[in-house]
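Sanity check

After download, print the first record. It should look like this:
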Amino acid sequence: MAVDNKKIAQDVLAAVGGAANVTSVTHCITRLRFNLKDQSVPDNEEVKKIKGVLGAQWSGGQYQVIIGQNVAKVYEEALGLGLEGGGSVNENLDAGEKEPLTPKRIGAAILNYLSKSMVSLIPIMMGAAMFRTLAVVLGPDMIGLWAADSTEYNLFYNWLYNAGFYFMPMYLGWSAARQLGASQQLGMMLGGVLIAPELINLVSAAAETGATTTSVYGLPAMLNNYSSTVLPIILCMPVLWQVEKFFKHIVPDMLSTVFVPFLTMFIMVPLSLVVLAPIGSVAGNLLADFMFGLGNAGGIVTILTLVVVATFWEFLVVTGMHQVLLTLAIAQLMTLGSDSCIIVGGTFAQWATWGMAFGAFLRLKEKDERAANLGYFLSGFLGGVTEPALYGCGFKYMRAFAGMMIGGAVGGLIGGVFQVTTYVLGATNVLVVLGFAAGGTSNLIWGVIACIASFVSAAAITFLFGFTKEQLDEDARAAKTSA
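Expected structure tokens:
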């Protein structure tokens, strides 16, 4: 049955109070995000009843309507109804309602900064990782199409991969500055300071001479290779933001173009190289060692870790908290080159979610519900998005979540027993299994087996136990009516 995106846009707009009540609307991968003047208007239960809507919720002062893969088309239709796209909430609406600064709000702001800074770079990491994955598959350790010393192998395995990961401090400097409202150009420059050839050469020479520090403005600075790192630049950027704000305030406008960036960097160079970047490096290594230990300790520790992560991961996706753990996992991946904990567990959870939707497709009889659940499965299997299955299947048929959770646990158990490891942050669809390839044939085989086991067990349990008798009776009646 064809999706009427215009009708969805019209119904949703009416439910949120019409164009007059909408300050602006944007969209992400699956959701329309409304800034509303009168936030008392939307009725969640009524919005959820709209054909084509998977769910609705308030988050961060925005009213979010979960649409699914076709959200961009619904968004375009909404703009055609007179809405302003991509705008920001009028600050006058919030006058006098500024929330007090609390530990909870500070913690939320820190997590928001970390996750958004990292998540915006996922396309770079995925693109670079897929080049290395292709090299591993076609290289001497697997298919053998490319020799280890061939130009093609070097291009894909080293050159293009390093283009994404080696320069990560510069990319993060831009991304973090963007989240904070600081100069993105200075963010990139500070990232460049951390990976400048002069510093890398000093680090290389120190390996032979035994030196551990160099001098910056006469101050001792630890010699570290900050290429492919995350936390050093992440720690530096909030300080740069405040230093830049200070100089913008005191430097006259006619001199600001030259002296604000110069003075900001003049202060940030020693602060970064002497204090902040070394702290970030030490913290990153400790974090990586801890998470690496959870995934590689073997025995009950690794097994329990994978089972717990794979069982509950998708509930973190619903709350958005998965981005925090994903940030930590990416930091570990770039520090040690592999992950056997968060990313691996999340992968099994994804397959279990797809299995839940597929099991619902097999069990339900009403054609629209079958088509919807098949769409949820395909949106994850091919598109790499699990939210449609979570909201359209899981939250509608709550018992189906048992299939998803048990399926994830089965995959986590297999992954933990055989210590399945991923080496790249690759695709989030079916091609995610390629992330196991760099670990060798055995790692790839057991990774694929764990994924398939997650999918099959989730589908089977959802098919057998995912629906109440009342839900199945109602589905049968609806199927007869629509026949």
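If your output differs, re-run the checksum step. Summary of this record's structure: The CA atoms of residues 4 and 358 lie 24 Å apart.
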